[in-house]
Write a structure and sequence with these properties.
Blueprint lengths: L1 H46 L7 H18 L5 H20 L6 H26 L7 H28 L4 E2 L8 H12 L8 E2 L2 H43 L1
Antiparallel strand pairs: 1-2
Helix pairs in contact: 1-2, 1-5, 2-3, 3-4, 4-5, 5-6, 5-7
Length: 246
């Protein structure tokens, strides 16, 4: 009997430890890792000169790393993980197949697949951020990661408009041709900085810019309110639990 009781206790301890590790990796460690990868790939490494010789190769490799790490966050939620794997696999396949088809049509398919993958990854991140429990600094990092994803997604949307409607954006040096230009304009719009060096010139481009500016402001306001509400609910439950025990 004593040995049986010890085994049961050991099994319970192992299950709890496994649950803690999985929960930490899925809802916390991966969110921090994803944000770090985003900042490195999108901002830090390009500013240090990485990818200057082959921008397309660098962009495809960076996107592949971000996509795989984003899909991994959904591990543990079978349906969500399945959807993320399918959409992510399609996006990766389209992006790397576009290497053999240097055409506007291939670029359009690449952009559309990338936008869809970004939406799915953003949903995966939000699902982890809004899980029950205390609001930690890691969840806040996850919320920031989603904000950055919006900027990257809109950069691809602007690129689509630029391909379909040449001259849709007016810039001092003419047509926007580098990925960094689209990313720059997207984040300037998302944060409503609006330097004015690049301006949308046709209705669809202006509508996208207005939508991104509104999204950037509303997302921050709603996210802060939601996280504060989650923290209040968590502490109220703690107080009620402590009162019940007493």
């Amino acid at each position: 009997m004593a040995e049986h009781a010890v085994r049961r206790r050991s099994e319970v301890v192992r299950r709890r430890a496994r649950g803690i590790i999985i929960d930490t990796w899925q809802s916390q460690a991966n969110l921090s890792l994803f944000l770090v990868l985003e900042v490195l790939i999108a901002f830090v490494l390009p500013s240090l000169g990485f990818g200057r010789k082959d921008v397309r190769l660098y962009g495809d490799m960076g996107f592949s790393i971000l996509l795989i790490s984003g899909v991994a966050i959904a591990w543990g939620r079978k349906r969500l993980f399945t959807v993320a794997v399918i959409v992510g696999g399609i996006a990766l396949g389209v992006r790397w197949l576009a290497w053999g088809y240097r055409s506007f049509r291939a670029e359009l398919w690449d952009d559309w697949a990338t936008i869809l993958a970004i939406l799915v990854i953003a949903f995966v991140l939000l699902a982890q951020i809004f899980r029950t429990g205390r609001v930690t600094h890691v969840r806040i990092q996850g919320a920031i990661a989603v904000y950055v994803l919006f900027g990257i997604g809109y950069a691809h949307a602007y690129h689509v408009v630029g391909i379909l409607h040449p001259g849709a954006f007016v810039a001092p040096k003419g047509e926007l041709s580098q990925p960094a230009d689209w990313v720059y304009f997207s984040f300037v719009t998302l944060t409503t900085v609006g330097y004015g060096d690049i301006t949308p010139a046709i209705p669809i481009a202006r509508a996208l810019a207005i939508g991104e500016a509104l999204l950037g402001q509303l997302y921050l306001a709603i996210m802060v309110a939601r996280l504060v509400a989650m923290e209040l609910v968590f502490w109220q439950q703690k107080v009620m639990e402590n009162g019940t025990k007493e």
